[in-house]
Amino acid sequence: MDGNSEDGDRGRPRQPLGTPGPQDLHGPPRPASYYSTIGGESLSVFIPEDPAIPRRASHHMLRNASNPRHVRSLVQRVTARGGYHLVLLLAPWALIIIGVPFYQYTPPGMTASPFFVSAALIAAPFQSLRATVAVALAAVSADVLLEVFNGTAEQPEAIIEMVAVVCVGVIAVVVNLSIARHARRLRDVTTVAEVAQRALLPTPADDLTGLRVATHYQAADTEARIGGDLYALQDSRTGVRLMVGDIKGKGLEAVAVVATIIGAFSEAAHDAPDLQTIAARIERALNHDGLHRSPDRSEAFTTAVLAEITPDRRRIHLLNRGHPAPLLLLSNGIVRVCEPANPALPLGLNHLGTWSDETLEVDFPPGATFVLFTDGLTEARNARGDFYDPAERLSGRAFDSPRTLLTALTEDVARHTGGHNDDDMALMAITREPHDSGLGTDKNDEKAFDRGEQPRSTQHR
């Protein structure tokens, strides 16, 4: 027929899928098998990224796709990685599947090419190269087969549509390759960031006399592993001195502040007579470098907890400058919040005035663990908006090492937030050995905690 006439091939009513047409020489098509092939290719490419689903398992699940139990198992495994992963996996194939009946059962003037084009473009930034190529080929094949099936493949409009789908498929593959190249560069930058982090936040010795130490740092953005949280530990003649802090701000400026604070702490911790002197030296270093000076200096500060474990390991002295209160977990599972009676301003705000630094003295019985953290832990929220409470989560529990405690804590907060945390976390745990011979015994200290006695505090100006 004449393609320009009203009764031309382009205007002929489309044959429903499954009904033999003039171009169908092999009987009715088998859309279920065709779609399964598409789905099988997608699953075999995307799902193996999850180690819980082996590459061959996708083909096994495809063969059992008619079994509802297997379908539910597939959905549960995929959604365990997050609901959006399931959407990114299925969206391109869903668009192709929707486009086929849309083409068949809509008026002749309607076209399904937007469905096929969108499928390739969605796959490009979110799926692997093989998956993107599979989606692009499926989209082109679906468009071409539909035009051939309906006898309209030689019409100018159909040719333009098919060429457009092919071009977009090629563009999608190029975009995927470009994203993969940038991802490799980002991994290189991340490696450099990890080295810088180790230089700024060196891992303390994990076995001091009578103590075991563990630290953990976790950035909010896993692709940029240096943030504004910090920790430091220094053994000195007056005891083990340590610090955990949180800098207001992110980026290179925060990294510079971290370097200044850790340098000032390391220098002062050797010979400063007390924690107040260490805090004053850190303030002086910050003011000298001008790292906290901005148009609004009230927005530039660092919260921190400074602590000193006495040489006999029986006491902990604390100085809290606007930071979340640390915890003391006893060997019997009792948790004590080491919070001063009077809060103090963070570091970097001494231009607002002077105040008395309150030093808190806490008994440190054998087997107890001293836990410090930043607000990335206490401000972590779940889907309902509930904050994470480390004191409640640790209460009644016992751990064989500080490393085990921090591992359990980070895994628990990940479950609480669903794996998404918007702030950095710096954690430090110090356990006093249950049998610290030569450093004195203090069974009365643990009894005092059991009776609920409060820590003692003193003020210094």
List the helices and strands and how they pair.
Layout: H1 31-46, H2 55-63, H3 68-79, H4 83-105, H5 113-126, H6 129-149, H7 156-200, E1 207-208, E2 211-218, E3 229-236, E4 239-247, H8 251-271, H9 275-289, E5 302-309, E6 315-321, E7 327-329, E8 335-337, E9 357-363, E10 369-373, H10 375-378, H11 390-394, H12 402-417, E11 425-432, H13 443-450, E12 456-460
Antiparallel strand pairs: 1-2, 2-11, 3-4, 4-5, 5-6, 6-9, 7-8, 7-10, 9-12, 10-11
Give an overview of the whole structure.
Residues 433-454 have a biased composition (Basic and acidic residues). The structure is a single chain. Helix content is 45%, strand content 16%. Helix 1 packs antiparallel against helix 6 (129-149), helix 4 (83-105) packs antiparallel against helix 5 (113-126) and helix 8 packs antiparallel against helix 9 (275-289). It folds into 2 domains: 9-190, no CATH class; 201-460, Phosphatase 2c, domain 1 (4-Layer Sandwich). It is an alpha+beta fold. The protein starts with 30 loop residues before the first helix and ends with a strand. A hairpin with a 2-residue loop joins strand 3 (229-236) and strand 4. It contains 13 helices and 12 strands. The chain has a 6-stranded antiparallel beta sheet. Strands 3-4-5-6-9-12 form a 6-stranded antiparallel beta sheet.
